[in-house]
Amino acid sequence: LPITMKLGHPRATEATVKYFLIQALAAALILFASTMNAWQTGLWDITNATQTTIITMAILMKLGTAPVHLWYPEVLQGTTLTTALLISTWQKLAPLSLLYMMHMNLPNNLLLLTGLLSALLGGWAGLNQTQTRKIMAHSSIAHMGWILIALSMTPELTTLTFLTYMIMTTAMFSSLNTSTTKTITDMGTAWSSSPMTMTLTLLTLTSLGGLPPLTGFMPKLLILNELTMKSLLPMAVTLALASLPSLFFYIRMAYTTTLTTPPTTTNIEHKWRFKSTTLPTHTATTATALLLMPLSPALHTTT
Question: Where's it found, cell-wise (predicted)?
Fold first, then answer.
């Protein structure tokens, strides 16, 4: 909370209050369901369907997945890019760990439904966004949908999918932070200041969209394969089609970034450029976000 609030801007304060209220409500629901279960059964093992459903929805609220996701884009929009990266990656570890530990007792139908809903709404709601932080928020919602569907089948695949998501999201936020782009319009003018960064941004966006042969294709291929093996072909087809709206706004960002002629600014005429400050994680995460696809069999067997 102090990291989110450190800007002192009213939008940052508003985002901090929203984040605090949502997380406090979700934590209260988890404690309520746990206490109710212990009172009724005398055990701390949560096996009752009602309490399990309440805890699942509370954790989904913490993760910012559909249908309890509306706070998430607004909070990310009110923070800095670095704080948005922390909320999108690091802050999801604890709720996902809870889901991971409870996966044997979780309602599979609820996970499949919320996962599919998150993938659909994350793509649709991101289509009309122009702010990069809101686009990344809806991207995160869609990816959480894939992770929830993986969790309903194999927890090991969930770990691989989440690690891939963290790497790709860190690479993307590092690119945005390096070029200080907060809107799609900014991305169109950033080419003249750092062409190499924008080229890597293009590749990272296509990896986020799940295009082969990049890293982002690996978890989607494995999840669709698992769904097909479990005779959930309609779910697999719907999930694959749900990724198309997300792919559209990734390609729109990539098109604006590198495939159009940028507006003629004074920087283009210069024979020199200011040295941009690159985060230490940028090179490593970008390389990992692009080149892991050939290692997918080994990664799938070791996770």
Answer: Mitochondrion inner membrane
